[in-house]
Records
---
Amino acid sequence: MKKKNITLLGINSKFVHTNLAIRYIKRVIEKIEGYNLSLVESSINNQLPNIIREIVESKPEILLISTYIWNKEFVFKIVVELKKIYPKIEIYLGGPEVSYSAMEVMKEYDVVDGIIVGEGETIVKNLLTEKKEKVLGFYYRENNMIKFNGPEKPIENLDIIDFPYEEWELIENKGKIFYYESTRGCPFRCSYCMSSIEKSVRSFSLPRVKKDLTTFIEAGVTLVKFVDRTFNLKKDHYMEVWKFLVENHKENITFHFEISGDLFDDEVIEFLTTVPKNLFQFEIGVQTINKNTMDLIRRKNDLNKLAKNVLAIKDNIHLHLDLIAGLPKEGFDTFKDSFNYVYDLKPEMIQLGFLKILKGTEISNQIDEFNYKYMDFPPYEVISNNHITYEELLKLKDVEEVLDFYYNSGDFEKSLEFVINKFYSSPFEFFFDIANYFERHGYFKISHKKLAIFNFFVEFYDKFLDENKKDIESRDKFIEYIKFDYVKMGKPGNYPEWFISEKNREYYHEIVEKLVEEKRFKNNRQGFKNTQLEEFSIDIFTGKKKKSTLLFLYEKSETFVEEC
């Protein structure tokens, strides 16, 4: 009996991402006889003709596609073209972008033969081994009609699902982001979130999770990103996982978790303060601090406890805090408060996102109530509502961009802190001002190298801040701080006009020779390449006027600063 060719297609938002869904389905199909299996994985940065060619080279008779908000437009263009090439190919879609509008999708695209709604592992297995009319969780065509046999039950025992990754791909693609889950479902009812639709939470067993994590650790991957919607729900589960990772800690591997920052008790906080630096990375969805908005979106945050917990663990846990603009009753002015609250917690990264109206969510049924206008194409971002205008959202888009330049990059720690403390009553005011400066001068319209971002900051200081408050001493301090930030970023290849490099070259030679003697470097050449000596007119760490000499040592991705 001739085997049928099946191709699994995953189109990621970035090259470094890995598609978890198609790998789960791959494991299922591998156990079914009668099929030749190919996996095609690409990203939206690839050209459509290239993706189509790669699919065609696998000679598919059946094509299964994982469909998401970021690849939906790609997917529908691809399936139309593939039907021209292979008129008899069977095309089945799955994923959140088609699950909650399956009937509409199949009516609009007659090239789609079926849509999988629910957990694909069970449904795909049944689709390939049973008659279509017996398959639950599946929309299909029959006699010019679209039929659905009802939903499939969630998988109760998740351990029956095989580990998705091959050992060779973990080893050969160590630098990629490997997605992993230890639970499915979410008990919370956030009105804007797809995860709120499935309220039950199921877990892989702890022995299974530990076995999977051991595989990642032994392969030497650099980043494992848990996709559990709220990882810290069940203490007996998440603490066991965390303790296991600490006990088996290896350098250069990080585990990323989405957590609720106000759920930790004192015991958990005490444990987290002992976790090795860079082992854990937490993403915490604050979204808003507006009480009315939190009530409307069914989200509860104990803001005092959240702040206390974040401040307690921030020294050794890499933190991302999220905000969402465009939520109900969150106007421009109240969003400023949310921004300043998050900024004052000083996470490594502030992720400023914009509300998306997703099919299947509660907020998609409240469009008239809040007068939402939103884009009809992915990512379905909000344009305006009763409390925020399109122009105000555009201003926040600009703030998002300069926030990435001057805060999330981590490159302007001293100079940024100085300017905000000296001239502004709140962080948001600074980012709003510099965003307006960028917009007026057209700086958003072209890409810039890192040096330009530094130059723009000095230019902003001289042409905007200093015009309002002439203060020569403050300007001198600012230059010293930004000079420090510039050198801390890496050994300068060239020096901007405002950077006056001052150093005792003879003293610098003595220091490098001493470092070579201590065997920190093989020779003087390597020593000079990986260090920088600079003199400053102030004490960078106290702000006092005092001459100081600092040695910058560049090791791997970190810079160490020593006073000389």
Note: The longest strand covers residues 545-555.
---
Amino acid sequence: MPESGIVPSRLAKTGTATLRRQEALRKAEALQNAILTSANFSIIATDENGLIQLFNLGAERMLGYTADEVVNRMSPSDMHDPQEVVARAQALSLELATPIAAGFEALAFKASRGIEDNYELTEIRKDGSRFSAVISITALRDEANSVIGYLLISADNSARKLIESGLNEALAVAEKADRAKSDFLSGMSHELRTPLNAILGFAQLMESGSPRPTPVQQRSLDQILKAGWYLLELINEILDLALIESGKVMLSHEPVLLSEVIHECRAMIEPQAHKRGISITFPHLAVPHFVSADRTRLKQVLINLLFNAIKYNLPDGEVAVECTLRPLESIRISVRDTGAGLAPAQLAQLFQPFNRLGKEAGVEEGTGIGLVVAKRLVELMGGAIGADSVVGVGTVFWIELKLAAAPQNVISETGLAALPKPPARDDLPLSTLLYVEDNPANLELVEQLIARRADLRLLSAADGNLGIEFARAYLPEVILMDINLPGMSGIEAMTILRADPVTAHIPVIALSANAVPRDIEKSLEAGFFNYLTKPIKVDKFMEALDVALKYSQSRTKPTASDNRT
């Protein structure tokens, strides 16, 4: 009797297991059926030689063949662009240094080595039409891990390609329009300078001529000159903004001693402040702080903020410049005024071109472009700019820049101490090197280097215009030119020297902190004899000077009076 009770229990368990297996089989069959009948994906299975064994409904829909037409008759590579299949085989051959045959072997090579491969190919339908597809290929293996075939799953990529193409085309059109706008502004700015030069020039001649202008004439001349100088300021700011937004402005990123820049700004700003009865205070930086910036452009930004603080201040107001260390190894330079202040709505509109935030109703002239230029420049130097204001109390404009390590005189395997100074020789001809540079630290470094050359004497100029005058007057054997100079860039100065028959023979070496290969290439194409990057390497620097001197001495040197009328 007990045994008769066990049998039904065992039968029940066996029946449950059977039902589970049947349910699993039904699910597997349903999954297989869903795969085979999927209309969204092409699913193709092949044998180990690449001959198609399975061709689902999605493959039929995408490629236009029926399963009967391709199974045991075709390979997937027969439906792919043959040139792309050949190119894939060649790429694999180069990558693996092994000849790979074009065809299905090229498609399945990585999958056969256990690497799931994904790639894009152009597939060809039965009617000859083509479409882009993304294909995933996986090797199928038996229990002994031998490859018995391949599974290819692909999806039509045409829609994504079309969207990408449209986006790329729209982006290209937008970039072209932006370049055209910037080029137009740049070109117009230059064109406007010619008539403006005549207006300002002749107005100044009339003002200083004999007989002296009558009071009425003087008032008219004052208006002409005031409007002319204001128009020149507007043109300069538009040109600056156009250059920045077109990506044509070049900035150097080097350690700049903040106290030096502030001192130079102070010398320019204090007379303007005193003329308006504005008291101005500057910080005393007991500890030298270096910031990573372009010296000339940093000075331009600070001058703009200081002029605005004076211009829009109240009578007998105050301006204070402050420096505060900030987190993340940065420093904030603030310019605080006691003007009317800005409302929150006005603060939100700052740094927009031609937006003077209600100042257009006042007596002060301005374009509203200066702050836009300042923002772009600060951001290009890796910093940030902002403002805080309280109506009736005043406004604080600030910029934050990353701190930088103090520059070493020379960063090179060969130090200054290891560089011997040649003995003085009476028979050694003395050559002149002109260095056009506005950064005192860089100038001091080159002075130390040239002091070790008994065959050279050094002249220096702080900007491009002065450099051109010195070059014409002294006819140096070699010119060393910084690229980022105040006013005129080093490239512009070099171009003028090249166009002048008197100075065209002088080799001009560019010296810049900008080490981007594309910019170096452009500078050499523009006409520089050589291009050296900062920090200076002594051996490379001296070698470049020697090559330039040898070239210069082999050329006929004209006199300053040659080709002059």
Note: The longest helix spans residues 158-208.
